[in-house]
Amino acid sequence: MKDTITPEDEQQIENAIKQAEENTSGEIRVHIENKCEIDVLDRATQVFAYLHMHQTALRNGVLFYVALKSHKFAVLGDAGINAVVPPNFWNEITSLVIGYFKQEKYAEGLAKGIIMAGEQLKTYFPNKGESDINELKNDISYGKD
C-alpha cells in the first residue's frame, strides 16, 4: 500500500478531511487495504465498526473504504446520515472517486470525494461553530495487507 499511497498522498487526503469537516459536524475517515475478499459493503461495515465510527453523537460518521489490489471502493454513512439523506446520496461521490481511481489517481480521487461529501453533509449536519468537536481522527487507517 505504501508504494501506492505516498506520504504526500496521505497529507493530501488528511487535508481534505480537515477541510470537509470545517463545513459539517459530520466525521470522515479513510481506510485503505490491499484486498477485500468479501462484498465491499460488508467489509466497509466491518471496518466502520472496528474504527468505532458509530460512536459519534449524531451518528454522522462517513467511511471511505478502499481495497487497492481488489479494485473495490465504498462510501458508507452511519444511521444518522442515512436516515435523512436521499437514497442515491453516495452515488455521485462514488462515481467521482472511481473515475479518478481508473486513472490511478487515488489520493486526488479520495480528496475530491471527501470534499464533495463535506459539502453535501453540511446541508444536513452543519458545523456547530465553537461547540463542534472533532470526534474521530483524521488520519488514514490501513489494513494489514
Question: What keywords describe this structure?
Answer:
145 residues, alpha/beta, Diaminopimelate Epimerase, Chain A, domain 1, 5 helices, globular
Description of the structure:
By secondary structure, the protein is α/β, with parallel strands linked by helices. The chain has a single domain (7-142), classed as Diaminopimelate Epimerase, Chain A, domain 1 (Roll). Helices cover 42% and strands 16% of the residues. The protein contains 5 helices and 4 strands; from the N terminus they run αβαββαααβ. The protein has a 4-stranded mixed sheet, with helices on both faces. A hairpin with a 4-residue loop joins strand 2 (61-67) and strand 3. The longest helix has 19 residues, at 106-124. The radius of gyration is 14 Å and the shape is globular. The model has no long low-confidence stretch (mean pLDDT 87). Residues 3-116 form the TPM domain. This is TPM domain-containing protein. Pfam families: TPM_phosphatase.
